[in-house]
Structure formats: structure tokens, C-alpha cells
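Lab notebook: predicted structure, single chain.

Context: the supervisor wants predicted structures on file for every construct in the current expression panel, including those that have not yet been purified. This is the next one on the list. No modifications to the sequence; it matches the entry in the shared construct table.
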Amino acid sequence: MNDGVNDGTDVRGNGAVRWGILATGGIAERFATDLAELDGAEVVAVASRTEASARAFADRFGIARAYGGWDGLFADPDVDVVYVATPHHAHREAAGRALEAGKPVLCEKAFTLNAREAEELVALARDRGLFLMEAMWMYCNPLVRRLAELVRGGAIGEVRTVQADFGLAGPSDPGHRLRDPAVGGGALLDLGVYPVSFAQLLLGEPDSVQAHARISPEGVDLNTGMLLGWDSGASALLSCSLEADTPLTASVSGTKGRIEVPRGFFFPERFTLYREGAEPEEFTHTDDPHSLRHEAAEVMRCLRAGEWESPLVPLDGTLAVMRTLDAVRDRVGVRYPQEALVTRG
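Prediction complete. Output recorded below exactly as produced.
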């Protein structure tokens, strides 16, 4: 890292990486659980908007310090890196304040509400010489990495189509977070980010975006279909839903074959490669595909190596996904009340 710019803790080498966790919801619980199984990782502090919530989380996971408020975590000299696990409407503020305090950041997805906020965070991290990464755990999954390597290596020829879906029979209560536009509710940012990220992992940022959605009375998308196109002739048919339990599968087809990923494509236990004239090849791994420790391990590797961003989850890729999500929202007419002027694709 650039020691003239970065005033955060230097963790280069092989010592323990000390984590601070911001927020105490379900994803934070999973992260703390999985970090406990990762060699060289230690959670030293947790923060929430209330001290009671932070203390309960700390007691559950054996964390030494609990802060009722964010500033204590950002000022803690023993915190090497902050994991931002707040709802995504708070990511810009939380990650931004952590970076301003000199802390490297792993920030949950969707990375921010919109591309403008994402660009601000990336610019801040690059200006300060600080590590920043979106917590797109799918990109760090060993099988997803293997799938991408096969596609990039020409195993199925030139990619022509990608299909992926993520839908669940979600909450019907209008007061639920997923139905609330004030906190970035809707299917797209919570679920649709996965199919979009899967397609862009393989094909990059699309050249055209079409979309259709069913909009709730509150003004968020409940069921969204997307058609992304590339000048190469490739296309991606993607969907997300808060109203239907969809297959949660993905496939990528090329001029020489295809790859099919069964239910749970964003944390696969296996996938199958089909090529003309050859027997199907099944790829599996024995590691827990549901674990968040793969992304945590990548953050720790980068910090120890002095790298400002991860080659597995590059910031330019995160920005490209956010531009696509903005474009989808623009096509279907979803706009969050706290947004000012937002540049749409």
C-alpha cells in the first residue's frame, strides 16, 4: 500500500487480520460464524446503531469490543479492516466514513443504491490508497472461478447466451424492508444483483439493456425480467422476483458447448460441462459452497500483499454492474426517494 496516503493499519505479512463488523443482522452473523473457521482471521470489534444490539452480538460471538454507534469502530486502532453489513441504502455512508477514517473496507452487495454512490466510494478509496471490495461472494467461490476459467479458456467456444434467475416467495407485508423504497427495497438490488453479476462475470458490461417489471404500490420492483445484449451478438436473459420461488439456476451456452449450474448457482456445489462428441463433465468441490470465508480470505490475501483491490472482484466490475442495475431501474421506472440526480445508462 502507499504508505504516504494510507493512514490505516498495515497488515502486510502473515499476521492475523483483525476485523471490525458494522451491523448485526443476519448476514453479519453468517460472516462472523464463517470467520471463526478461517485461519488468521480475528473479529475484534462490532458496531451497531444501538449499544444493546452490538453487545448482544459481541457476547454471542466472543468479540472483545462492542460500540453503540459507528465512530468507535472506525477509530479503533486494533481494527485492520471493516466489513460493512448494513442494508444497502446505508452502504455509501458507512463505507465512506470507514474509508475516511483510514480503514480498508469489504462492503456488502448491492454495493450501493446506484452507480453515482459507487463511483464516489471507489474514487475515495483510490484517492486514499485504501483497499475496497464488494462482498460478491459468488465471484470468490472456487467452482464459480473454475467455471469462469473454462469459459474464458474457450471450453464452450464463443459465448452466445447466458440465463440466470433468483426469485423467492418474499414478504407480502408492505412495511417489510424489501417492500420499502426508502431503504432501496425491491427484487433487483437484493436478488437481481446475482444474475446480473453472473452474466457480467462472463461477458462484461452489456451494450444494451431492456427490462420489464411488476411494480408494487410502494414503488419497488416485485418481479423483473432483463434482456442484456452485447455487440458481439451475445445476450443474457435474467430474472428476479419477490413473488415466486424460481429455479435459482444458471447456464451459459457457446458455439462449442454449454455449462449448466443447478439450483443455487451463486453458491454451487457442482456444475456440468456439455460438449459435442464428448461425455458430460461434472465439476464439484468438497469445500462448503455456502461459506463467506472465501471472500474474507481474498480480502486478507490482498491486505497482506499490499493490494488496493481484488482481481477476483475488481472495482471496475462492481461499477459496471451498478450501471446495469441503474439502467434496469430506469427502464422499469423505479427511483428511490433519497436519490438526487442519478446518471443512468
